[in-house]
Design brief:
The structure holds two protein chains of two kinds.
Chain A (H helix, E strand, L loop, with lengths): L1 H18 L3 H4 L1 H4 L3 H9 L22 E5 L2 E4 H20 L9 H21 L1 H24 L9 E3 L5 E3 L8 H33 L8 H48 L8 H31 L3 H7 L1
Antiparallel strand pairs in A: 1-2, 3-4
Chain B lengths: L2 H7 L4 H27 L4 H24 L3
Helix pairs in contact in B: 2-3
Classes of the chains: A mainly alpha, B mainly alpha.
């Protein structure tokens, strides 16, 4: 059962990022972000590459670059990094748990510390019952995001590559979360699971009551008044729920993409060489951890909010 | 030199700058109050950290809406 969960998770993560077949033109919205830099570059008379929407600093292109084609699938450099990191995590976990000891040492000890620490942390937020059901998803999210964020900081990830026929440099690897397809795949996977968990915890009627229901009580005329108000509150709630995947994916993508851009821009400053980007490396190490935690915490809290029992139930329980 | 022609010449992603100011103020308030709350009640520091990270992330999200969604 647990193996099945891990595989579902993995397929969701990898499959959905692969589903966006043409990574180059799927990011139109993001490509247009650079339009101001493009204008600036045009105005200052610089030669400019439209195809990759590259800014004047020759910074990171906003969308991941295709590396090779696997039939109809376009494999971008972000996807290569994703698969690499996932393989490393799976291999390390398998290796650590190959011989399980009662008193853990080495790799097993490390993974036990990691998983138990995460479990305790999430248990404190979500409660003992819900965390057992959803821990596999949140822990995988956290470990995967943390690993990909820190993997993207290893020197050489964005700097080792090949030269295209038109004399452009393209890296073999790119931070996996610096690709909007990846972050939105995770956000959409969470959204699907959120719906499933919400329905399991509340049922259809319960879910409707949870969102649109009258939480104010009241009697007589006030009751009908409150029902109408809470119906409109429910509509707002639905809008905010629908925006969650958008904000989750943009937050992670924006932070990681901006971080990589900062590092590249700081490297461009002449004079002191590698000293200038060094403080930003520590910042990015911190951001990588915090963003992994933010993604996990936000998804966990969203799940908790919808799966929590109503106040009436609590009153009966006490 | 009057100000209006100068202002009219300015262009660029103003909405992103304004959103960044707003969310920076928001994150600053969250951080200030979180530090204050931790100082008052150090025992609750884990819960305070969780809440403040979540709220800071929500305040920060506005900037990303401004960058990527608004044209």
């Amino acid at each position: 059962m647990r193996l099945l969960q891990y595989w579902t998770m993995l397929c969701l993560l990898l499959g959905m990022s692969a589903m966006d077949l043409s990574a180059a033109d799927s990011d139109h919205g993001v490509a247009e972000v650079t339009s101001t830099t493009e204008l600036h570059a045009l105005a200052s008379g610089e030669s400019h590459d439209q195809a990759h929407g590259e800014g004047e600093h020759h910074g990171l292109p906003p969308s991941a670059v295709p590396v090779f084609h696997l039939g109809p699938l376009v494999i971008t450099n972000s996807m290569v990094a994703t698969i690499l990191v996932a393989a490393v995590i799976i291999f390390a976990a398998q290796r650590a748990t190959r011989t399980v000891r009662a008193v853990p040492i080495g790799g097993q000890n490390f993974f036990e510390w990691l998983v138990e620490g995460l479990f305790g942390f999430l248990e404190g937020i979500m409660g003992a019952e819900l965390v057992k059901k959803t821990f596999w998803f949140f822990a995988s999210l956290f470990l995967f995001i943390l690993a990909t964020n820190w993997f993207g900081l290893i020197p050489g990830i964005g700097t080792i590559g090949w030269e295209t026929s038109d004399g452009h440099f393209e890296p073999w690897l790119r931070g996996a979360q610096a690709d909007l397809n990846m972050t939105s795949a995770m956000a959409v996977a969470f959204f699907v699971l959120w719906t499933v968990w919400a329905l399991q915890a509340n049922g259809v009627k319960g879910l409707y009551n949870h969102i649109f229901g009258n939480k104010g009580g009241g009697a007589g005329f006030m009751k009908w008044f409150l029902i109408a108000i809470f119906f409109f509150v429910g509509i707002l709630e639905v809008v905010s729920i629908l925006f969650r995947p958008v904000s989750l994916s943009f937050r992670l993508f924006g932070n990681v993409f901006a971080g990589e851009n900062i590092l590249e821009s700081m490297l461009m400053i002449k004079g002191l060489g590698w000293i200038i980007p060094l403080p930003f490396y520590f910042l990015e190490l911190l951001v990588g951890l915090i963003q992994a935690m933010v993604f996990m915490l936000l998804t966990a809290v969203f799940t908790l909010l919808i799966c929590q029992h109503h106040d009436e139930d609590h009153g009966e329980a006490h | 030199m009057s100000l209006m022609p100068l202002l009219a010449e300015m262009s660029g992603s103003f909405h992103v700058g304004l959103a960044a100011i707003g969310s920076a103020i928001g994150v600053g308030l969250v951080g200030a109050k979180a530090a204050e709350a931790t100082a008052r009640n150090p025992g609750a520091s884990t819960q305070i950290m969780v809440i403040s990270i979540i709220l800071a992330a929500l305040a920060e999200g506005i900037t990303f809406f401004a960058i990527f969604l608004a044209k």
